[in-house]
Request: fold
Amino acid sequence: MKKILGILLAVFMIFVGVPSAFTANAMETSVDKNEMMSTVEILSSYPRGHDNEEKELARKLIIDTFEQYGLTVTKQEFEAEHLDWDKIDRGEDEPYSKYSAVNLIGTIAPNTAVKTNDILIIGAHYDGIRNIPAANDNASGVAVMLELVRLLHNVPTDTEIRFIAFDAEEDGLLGSMHYVSQLGADSDRVIGMLNFDMLAAKKEENVKIYSADGESSFLSDLLKNNDNYKNIEVLEYNSGGTSDHAAFAPKAIPNLFFSHPAVHGEYHNDNDTIEHVSPDMLAYAADAGQVIAREIMNEQTRSYQAVARPVFDPTVYPISSTIRIPDGSKKEIEEALGIRFSQVPSEDSTSRYQAKVQLFDIPEPLTLTATSHWGWLGSLTVDFRDTGISFEELSAILDEKFNKSENNRWNNIYGNSYDIEYDEQENIFTLHITPYYDEPQEGYTLVDGELVRMESGYGAHEMRISKKDGKIMKEEIINKPSATLPVTDHAKQAWEKVKSQLSAEELAEISFIRIGSDGIDGDFAISMVRAASEPMEDTSEWEESLQEGQDIGVFIPIEGTHLYLDHIDLTHSLGSSYTDKDMQANMKMARAMKAGIFPYELRKNYYDDIKRGDFAMLVVGLLFQKTDWEPDMMEPTPFEDTTDSYIIAVNKLGLIDGKSDTLFAPDDTITREEAAVILHKIYTYLGIKDASGNVSPTIYLDDSDISDWAKESVYAMQLAEIMAGTEQGLFLPKNNYTLEQAIISMLQLYEKK
Reply:
């Protein structure tokens, strides 16, 4: 390997050992797409995994660029470890391997007459997944960072700028976490962190801007002050991972993350090549970065220390015993509780948030604390030290409000639990409030229309494949009716509420019923899916890798319709399906799920007003199920406010017009008369046979309020039984259309011949 590395270094010098094609200029503000693509090309020409010796080439490129532009270069070496999943699969006791990692830091010192004590960090990780090109993840981010070095190296600055190429990001943000742990007193000086990682996949089309908790900060405000970025939105990254900016979040350091969701088929594999990298997206990220940095570097602007740390909100928020606390992000929990958390610096790698609350009927204001690891909030706690409230008093309050189980633990019907961690010797106790989680699921089937308990709550059969004495053993475990498990009372109650709503055809199709609960108002009370029993896939590759005594499980779905019931939502007076009206709405939502016309992304509160972009998503789902239509995913957008391929496709079909020639307004709501026009167009496009004959429509009492351009559609949809008015004989044309109403209309269209 040393010989190979030497040859690669020699080739590398051909690329970087000659003067750069561009000329450094203090006033240069235009990003150079070609220069960034050249950087991506070089970096992606060799792998940069934890044990790829070629990673040294990337280090040399970064250091040479730092030095070329006069930055002070330092190395920060540390020991990292890599989790080898192959070793886990082989059952090895020690699946970790240690390796030497290096963070590379290039610094621009303040050079103006008046200097601040501020530090701005601009970072990107240069490591990649073992043995792949890693062009987008993350040669793209390194290219942007080095372009910012070129753009900013000669700009007068009152602020210290640190460019950091982080190592070992792919093994769990190890480089950035190590860097933050070594900041010491400089931690208070860091006013912000800009992170560039996996930001230029052509399929994503647009760079998105995130922060660790989805909150705006002075960094995003600086960007919004620029006309080119005034409409940006700061998002929370919910794609199952994160990046180096998250390491700075526990210190309450403002951060922005320029990236996009992982692209299926290009993420962490050999397809992550330069052919899939967009130079325009590189340019967008680099320009946005320099807009923020130049404003901070400007000696006419003051220090940002005063706005770089959050201000604690002193509001005392009431929290009742009937509140339902979800398991979710900071934003989701804030919305559920109706409070506003303030971040406070943390001494460890978790972010810490606090709010002043009045808990239950306790008059004394208390401090509610939540911790977050990469955006997801864990258990909420209240420390009763120095509150004047005794363990006995708190226990009595919880006894009154909730059902006590055991070991100082109480539960409510909303799926939350409350437990007290009590140190009797020190007389110190903390209340832990646990968000709701799904209860264990019970599985059932129907025999002569009656519930029969299944052995497993999972709607599938299982094939266990193991290796014993060198031989491959296969055992098929059939999920069958149990001879011992009882039908629970809550299962009987839930089924009684639902079975009368099902048609004879639907009852005949049901092969599996799962009954459980995630508390009041968790997800949907009723849902249905079609399940196909697919042939057993080839397991020979797994069998070859099996070690002695190891086994794997393959699940084969039970064919037919699977019905899911939340017994508390269905049977409790506070449940979302307690009334007959709610039950009917739930059943229609469930039927739409089964039909495949209710996208998972929209499965939320169906009483909310539907947005134009979401309506387009419903139309696409309906067309996929009812026709052989295939959208042109590369159709250029006529709109300035969306590049969504599905929106563009249904617009091209003439089903949903834009708000203007250049704006679609995907986040705008839709009035009922606008919905009628769209539904009429879909009805016509599908060629549904008109069964109304010569029947005249029933004129609505508010007919004069219906716009002339919508009247034909309003009454056509009434006759087609696609969209009706209210029980009072009104149509309410200017009211907003809800998600529930849209789903029901789509279901009516789906069921039409």
Notes: The longest strand covers residues 96-108.
